[in-house]
């Protein structure tokens, strides 16, 4: 029996290269990958969970899939995913995301940041934990793509690959302090994007120059060299005031980068966050280098949007998907399981409703109609 329906996912999965010998292909590769991603939607976070999902839902699954070899065992899932080509899997995920969200991300803010799956290391074999650098579309809370690196210190070598993979023309790319490197500015603006790069103490010389420039510009504020903005938020007994300034004067920018190492900078920004909780007051300054025009309000919006990937993506992956508890280490298996989690998260985010990702997964596991609603997005 042939599959009853073809989805946007199955069309892209069909392009993956099967790493198995012809005589060992009892189960179709497209169905192994499809089962894994559907199981991920329902709370399966390991190979045993994938098999358990398949056996519990076998009759229902056969209305969609042929399953000529039945449900693969957990060992089969593990062996196949350990050997799949990561480059092809990433391309498959990217093609699917662009298909369901549209190829363009113009006027959106795309945040780039890394996360380590803490228990995926194998000290006995000298393998570091999986560290995945992901791109996150802040407007619709979708993971756009990911690139794996062995160690967090190598983020700066992995980050340039993402702008080359994604359609970023017209968007603003935000990167945490690890990414504030001269070598990363050019790959971002190459596809026609702007950037906002955070500065921290790891860049002491540049940070000192930026702070000195703002101190000087504040003293000369009457000359109109600074653009300023202010926001005030209150709730849960806390008052938070954010003051922002943007500086785009060519003379100031030239003094910050006398050697011209940075590609196309148009401004620098300073954000001061003042928090009041009872009698306690804390002030935290943050500095940024940017290709955005010197507009303090626009810069503040991009910075706030970047917190989405820092506060929402890692937190959801740890709490709803228990990523930091994953102990899988064999070959490319950890990376492919991370992609399964990103796939599930994207579908869960697209489903209307205010329920948490964990509740949506639980509901999909219990109720076939809820799972059908999630899977219907694959035909969008």
Which outline best applies? elongated
Biggest sheet character = 9 strands, mixed
The gyration radius over C-alpha positions equals 23 Å
Number of strands: 9
**CATH C-level name of the largest domain:** Alpha Beta
Write down the CATH topology of the largest domain: Transposase Inhibitor Protein From Tn5, Chain A, domain 1
What's this model, at a glance?
The chain has 380 residues and is α+β, with helices and mostly antiparallel strands. 42% of the residues lie in helices and 20% in strands.
Which descriptors apply to this entry?
nine-stranded mixed beta sheet, 16 helices, single chain, 20% strand, Transposase Inhibitor Protein From Tn5, Chain A, domain 1, alpha+beta, 380 residues, 2 domains, elongated
């Amino acid at each position: 029996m042939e599959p009853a329906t073809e989805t946007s996912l199955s069309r892209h999965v069909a392009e993956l290269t099967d790493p198995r010998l012809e005589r060992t292909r009892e189960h179709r590769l497209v169905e192994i990958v499809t089962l894994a991603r559907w199981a991920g939607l329902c709370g399966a976070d390991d190979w045993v969970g994938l098999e358990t999902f398949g056996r519990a839902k076998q009759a229902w699954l056969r209305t969609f899939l042929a399953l000529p070899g039945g449900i693969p065992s957990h060992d089969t899932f593990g062996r196949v995913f350990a050997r799949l080509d990561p480059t092809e899997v990433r391309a498959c995920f990217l093609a699917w995301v662009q298909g369901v969200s549209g190829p363009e991300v113009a006027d959106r803010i795309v945040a780039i940041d890394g996360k380590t799956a803490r228990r995926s290391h194998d000290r006995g074999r000298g393998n570091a934990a999986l560290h995945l650098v992901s791109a996150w579309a802040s407007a619709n809370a979708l993971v756009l793509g990911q690139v794996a690196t062995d160690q967090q210190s190598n983020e700066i070598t992995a980050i340039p690959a993402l702008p080359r993979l994604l359609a970023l023309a017209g968007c603003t790319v935000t990167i945490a302090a690890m990414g504030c490197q001269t070598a990363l500015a050019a790959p971002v603006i190459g596809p026609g994007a702007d950037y906002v790069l955070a500065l921290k103490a790891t860049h002491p010389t540049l940070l000192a120059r930026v702070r000195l420039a703002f101190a000087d510009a504040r003293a000369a504020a009457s000359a109109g060299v600074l653009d300023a903005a202010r926001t005030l938020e209150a709730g849960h007994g806390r008052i938070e005031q954010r003051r922002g300034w943007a500086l785009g004067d060519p003379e100031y920018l030239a003094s910050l980068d006398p050697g011209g190492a940075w590609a196309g900078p148009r401004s620098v920004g300073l954000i001061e966050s003042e928090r009041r909780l009872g009698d306690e007051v804390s002030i935290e300054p943050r500095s940024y280098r940017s290709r955005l025009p010197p507009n303090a309000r626009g810069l503040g919006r991009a910075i706030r949007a970047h917190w989405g990937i820092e506060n929402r993506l890692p937190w959801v992956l740890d709490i709803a998907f228990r990523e930091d508890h994953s102990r899988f280490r064999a070959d490319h298996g950890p990376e492919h399981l991370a992609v399964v989690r990103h796939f599930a998260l994207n579908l869960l985010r697209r489903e209307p409703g205010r329920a948490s990702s964990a509740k949506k997964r639980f509901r999909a596991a219990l109720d076939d109609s809820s799972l059908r609603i999630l899977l219907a997005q694959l035909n969008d």
